[in-house]
Amino acid sequence: MTLDPRRALVIGVDYGTLSGRAVVVRAADGAELGSAVHEYRHAVMDRTLTASGDAPLPPDWALQVPADYVDVLKNAVPAAIAAAGVDPADVIGIGTDFTACTMVPTTADGTPLCELDQFADRPHAYVKLWKHHAAQAHADRINTLAHERGEPWIARYGGLISSEWEFAKGLQLLEEDREVYDAMKHWVEAADWIIWQLCGQYVRNACTAGYKGIYQDGAYPSENFLTALNPDFGTFVSDKLEHRIGQLGEAAGRLTAQAAEWTGLPEGIAVAVGNVDAHVTVPAANAVEPGQMVAIMGTSTCHVMNGDELHDVPGMCGVVDGGIVAGSWGYEAGQSGVGDIFGWFVSTSVPPSYVEAATEKGVSVHAYLTELAQQQEIGEHGLVALDWHSGNRSVLVDHELSGLVIGQTLATRPEDTYRALLEATAFGTRTIVEAFNGSGVPVTELVVAGGLLKNTFLMQLYSDITRLPLSTIVSDQGPALGSAIHAAVAAGYYPDVRTAAPVMGRRVAGAYTPDEEAAARYDVLYEEYRTLHDHFGRGGNDVMRRLKRIRREAIGRRPRLSGGDDAERGTAPELTAPDELA
Q1: Which of 12, 209, 407, 449 could form a disulfide with 215 if both were Cys (CB 3.0 to 4.6 A apart)?
Q2: Whether residue 118 has pLDDT greater than 90
Q3: In whole angstroms, what is the distance from residue 470 CA to residue 121 CA?
Q4: What gap in Å lies between CA 206 and CA 186, rounded to an integer?
Q5: pLDDT confidence of residue 4
Q6: pLDDT tens per residue, range 175-218
Q7: If you write DSSP's letter for every residue of 438-500 in order, what string do you get?
Q8: Beta strand 384-386 with 32-39: parallel, antiparallel or unpaired?
Q9: Going from the N-terminus, what domains does the chain have, and what CATH number goes with each?
Q10: According to the model, what pLDDT value does residue 53 have?
Q11: Which positions ≥6 away from 37 have C-beta within 8 Å?
């Protein structure tokens, strides 16, 4: 019996920072029929190795447990099918997306090293999450050597590669835990590892290979270059990294019997090549044309867009041929902290009276602070902030930078600082937009996806500050929908992503437009932001780096405490999830 095309379903699974979510989508029109979320049991391990004895972790580490990702398949996918009330037999394909660059060291058969008894207590054997920034010194060495040697690929990454990416994290692993490095047979993007679990085939996806793996024009950095970094790093590509690369929208393989048992889906359905959460969202917003910059705003923000021509953009995260859709140059930039910054402020810097007032009004603290902040005139708070609390991804590409708020007085209130932080992230986006405009890649429309688009004040603020029309994605599950679109292409329902995007993806064009009077006032504050940006980011004032070094040295001298003593150390509570930042 042949399946009626009108009934054909696809599954999209979005792996975020704290949870994975699955959505059931009708291939014919993109209708979302049901969804479910499963939180990672171990969340993010950035203070202690909670998966094995609570050993303390150094600053700037961020680890995860790969088994948590499989649990999403076992829980969220069946729950989404149940919520949709559909027959699993109608599902023709599954696609996934992941945060990147998130790396898993594995054996030859894909077993994560942290699952081996001899490495269970070794931090380097675990997943290094995208926001693991402890490899900054290694990234610095890669960048310096690339410029000294005139490596042509460095320009494709805006002149700098990030500590978040594959080579910096791999070099850190080599130099800090040689035994784990030697035991590792594959250095795998989590985006590809989860596909491996679904179809039994290891296929590197073109997106992460190009943006995070320095794969350009069919080649990685040379063995000669890697040997110059460290003689034992010379064979990193051939021994640990190189593998077949699959193009976006292709089928990596077919669902195995084991994965079918986990998910409740039919064995043998198409499994799409892996992808990145930001890039996969572009077709979900039907924003695949040049000039449409898609900003996926959550804990961080990733800015992606297509272009017809190749240009070097200083400080971009990368440009890859077919990195978003086939036939276009895909550009990427980003901000390492956005929702994380707002969440940090609410978790650490709001007095009890504000929490009580929010509770009385029946709203979140974020909503309460937003309500107070939007009553102000632009500039009334007298503050300017730098949005570098998680470092700077673009355009400075330096995770040794840190946050700053200037202008505080004894009259400064929480809503003042909160608004200044909102504005700082918008100023950061404008800096990225100006870098693209000045490099021959014009941005004509800002398209927002992610949990933060629910904050209407923030969206208008972004439109005013960037002076761009701001469109919003219709779906609440942009990445998951995008993965489902790729699943439909992989299953052969559509010939390519460009064809599927207008049918399955949607956005509200021009949902917000800039107010000229407000934009002019923000221009004044933006000039102050750029002065601080260039002074601390480009001007040779390395006080932020020095303070981080002092902090690391102090932590290194601290007596080791038991795993339950976080309160004594003065560590902050867990940050608010980005979906709550409306």
Answers
A1: 209
A2: yes
A3: 47
A4: 17
A5: 84
A6: 999 999 999 999 999 999 999 999 999 999 999 999 999 999 99
A7: TTT----EEEEESGGGG-HHHHHHHHHHHTS-EEEES-S-HHHHHHHHHHHHHTTSSSSHHHH
A8: unpaired
A9: 5-285+475-505 (3.30.420.40), 339-472+512-580 (3.30.420.40)
A10: 86
A11: 19, 20, 21, 76
Calculate the CA 476 to chain-centre distance. 17
Rounded to an integer, what is the distance from CA 445 to the centroid of its chain? 21
- CA proximity to 56, closest of 576, 578, 581, 563: 563
- Cis peptide leading into residue 101 (ω within 30°): yes
Question: How many Å apart are CA 417 and CA 37, to the nearest integer?
Answer: 32
Residue holding tokens 């048992």? 261
> If we measure between CA atoms, which residue out of 199, 237, 333 comes closest to residue 279?
333
Tokens of 490: 């992989």
Q: Please, what is the angle between helix 497-504 and helix 277-284, to 10°?
A: 60
Question: Any idea which residue has 């003065």 for tokens?
Answer: 570
Q: Would you state the structure tokens that stand for residue 424, as one six-digit string?
A: 């700082």
pTM above 0.90, yes or no: yes
Helix (H), strand (E) at residue 127: strand 127-128
pLDDT (tens digit per residue) in 33-82: 999 999 999 999 999 999 988 899 999 999 999 999 999 999 999 999 99
β-pair partners for 14? 21, 97
Measured CA to CA, the distance from residue 578 to residue 371 in angstroms comes to 18
- Per-residue HEC secondary structure of 248-301 comes to CCCEEEECCHHHHHHHCCCCCCEEECCCEHHHHHHHHCCCCCCCEEEEEECCCE
Do 155 and 312 touch, CB atoms closer than 8 A? yes
